[in-house]
Amino acid sequence: MWHSFLALEHNMVHVLQHVQEQIGDMTQPSGNKLILATEEAVLNVMRYSGSPHVHILCRQSTEQGKEVLIKDQGFPFNPLEHLKTPSEILQNTFEKDGGYGIYLMHAAVDNIVYQRENNSNILILSKYG
After folding, report:
1. CA 129 to CA 35: how far, in whole Å?
2. Residue 29 structural domain
3. Considering its fold, how many domains does the chain have in total?
Protein backbone atom coordinates (compact mmCIF):
# COMPACT_ATOMS: atom_id res chain seq x y z
CA MET A 1 0.00 0.00 0.00
CA TRP A 2 1.28 3.47 -0.90
CA HIS A 3 1.95 5.84 2.01
CA SER A 4 1.74 9.57 1.34
CA PHE A 5 3.77 12.32 2.97
CA LEU A 6 3.73 16.07 2.48
CA ALA A 7 6.78 16.92 0.38
CA LEU A 8 8.41 19.03 3.10
CA GLU A 9 11.95 18.39 4.30
CA HIS A 10 10.96 18.24 7.96
CA ASN A 11 8.86 15.17 7.09
CA MET A 12 11.95 13.24 5.99
CA VAL A 13 12.29 11.61 9.42
CA HIS A 14 8.78 10.15 9.04
CA VAL A 15 9.52 8.88 5.54
CA LEU A 16 12.71 7.17 6.69
CA GLN A 17 11.03 5.68 9.78
CA HIS A 18 8.35 4.21 7.54
CA VAL A 19 10.91 2.71 5.14
CA GLN A 20 12.97 1.32 8.03
CA GLU A 21 9.89 -0.40 9.45
CA GLN A 22 9.04 -1.90 6.05
CA ILE A 23 12.53 -3.25 5.28
CA GLY A 24 13.37 -4.13 8.88
CA ASP A 25 14.31 -7.73 8.17
CA MET A 26 17.00 -6.79 5.62
CA THR A 27 20.64 -7.30 6.54
CA GLN A 28 22.30 -4.23 8.06
CA PRO A 29 24.61 -3.03 5.26
CA SER A 30 22.05 -3.62 2.51
CA GLY A 31 19.23 -1.99 4.45
CA ASN A 32 21.35 1.05 5.27
CA LYS A 33 22.29 1.51 1.61
CA LEU A 34 18.66 1.28 0.53
CA ILE A 35 17.68 3.87 3.14
CA LEU A 36 20.52 6.17 2.02
CA ALA A 37 19.37 5.97 -1.61
CA THR A 38 15.75 6.53 -0.55
CA GLU A 39 16.71 9.61 1.45
CA GLU A 40 18.53 11.14 -1.51
CA ALA A 41 15.68 10.40 -3.93
CA VAL A 42 13.00 11.76 -1.59
CA LEU A 43 15.05 14.90 -0.84
CA ASN A 44 15.24 15.55 -4.58
CA VAL A 45 11.45 15.26 -4.81
CA MET A 46 10.96 17.58 -1.83
CA ARG A 47 13.40 20.20 -3.11
CA TYR A 48 12.93 20.22 -6.86
CA SER A 49 9.82 18.42 -8.13
CA GLY A 50 7.11 20.92 -7.32
CA SER A 51 4.94 18.05 -6.08
CA PRO A 52 2.98 18.67 -2.86
CA HIS A 53 3.27 15.00 -1.83
CA VAL A 54 5.69 12.12 -2.07
CA HIS A 55 4.32 8.58 -2.04
CA ILE A 56 6.30 5.57 -0.82
CA LEU A 57 5.71 1.87 -1.40
CA CYS A 58 8.04 -0.81 -0.01
CA ARG A 59 7.82 -4.35 -1.31
CA GLN A 60 9.69 -7.61 -1.66
CA SER A 61 11.65 -7.77 -4.91
CA THR A 62 11.83 -10.84 -7.10
CA GLU A 63 15.60 -11.05 -6.49
CA GLN A 64 15.62 -11.88 -2.73
CA GLY A 65 15.70 -8.27 -1.69
CA LYS A 66 13.55 -5.20 -1.20
CA GLU A 67 12.30 -2.40 -3.41
CA VAL A 68 11.32 1.12 -2.47
CA LEU A 69 9.06 2.88 -4.95
CA ILE A 70 8.99 6.67 -4.79
CA LYS A 71 6.21 8.46 -6.64
CA ASP A 72 5.47 12.15 -7.14
CA GLN A 73 3.30 14.27 -9.41
CA GLY A 74 6.02 16.82 -10.08
CA PHE A 75 7.82 17.91 -13.19
CA PRO A 76 8.99 15.00 -15.38
CA PHE A 77 12.53 14.13 -14.30
CA ASN A 78 14.48 10.97 -15.01
CA PRO A 79 17.54 11.02 -12.72
CA LEU A 80 19.18 8.25 -14.75
CA GLU A 81 19.57 10.71 -17.64
CA HIS A 82 21.69 12.90 -15.34
CA LEU A 83 23.95 10.20 -13.91
CA LYS A 84 27.60 11.25 -13.97
CA THR A 85 30.79 9.28 -13.53
CA PRO A 86 33.03 10.04 -10.54
CA SER A 87 35.51 11.81 -12.84
CA GLU A 88 32.75 14.01 -14.28
CA ILE A 89 31.66 14.92 -10.75
CA LEU A 90 35.22 15.82 -9.74
CA GLN A 91 35.70 17.81 -12.93
CA ASN A 92 32.58 19.87 -12.18
CA THR A 93 33.36 20.43 -8.47
CA PHE A 94 33.82 24.15 -8.88
CA GLU A 95 30.87 24.62 -11.22
CA LYS A 96 28.28 23.50 -8.64
CA ASP A 97 26.72 21.44 -11.41
CA GLY A 98 25.38 18.80 -9.04
CA GLY A 99 25.07 15.11 -9.72
CA TYR A 100 26.56 13.89 -6.44
CA GLY A 101 23.26 12.67 -5.05
CA ILE A 102 22.23 10.81 -8.18
CA TYR A 103 25.64 9.11 -8.28
CA LEU A 104 25.36 8.23 -4.58
CA MET A 105 21.89 6.76 -5.12
CA HIS A 106 23.10 4.70 -8.06
CA ALA A 107 26.14 3.42 -6.15
CA ALA A 108 24.10 2.43 -3.06
CA VAL A 109 21.54 0.15 -4.71
CA ASP A 110 21.65 -2.78 -7.12
CA ASN A 111 19.11 -1.45 -9.61
CA ILE A 112 17.21 1.76 -10.35
CA VAL A 113 14.27 2.04 -12.72
CA TYR A 114 12.48 5.25 -13.71
CA GLN A 115 8.95 5.32 -15.11
CA ARG A 116 6.63 8.16 -16.07
CA GLU A 117 3.00 7.03 -15.71
CA ASN A 118 -0.22 9.03 -15.50
CA ASN A 119 1.62 12.33 -14.91
CA SER A 120 3.68 10.75 -12.12
CA ASN A 121 7.39 10.11 -11.74
CA ILE A 122 8.06 6.67 -10.27
CA LEU A 123 11.54 5.71 -9.15
CA ILE A 124 12.14 2.09 -8.14
CA LEU A 125 15.19 1.45 -5.95
CA SER A 126 16.15 -2.23 -5.57
CA LYS A 127 18.62 -3.74 -3.12
CA TYR A 128 19.29 -7.47 -2.96
CA GLY A 129 20.52 -9.46 -0.01
Report:
1. 14
2. 3-128
3. 1
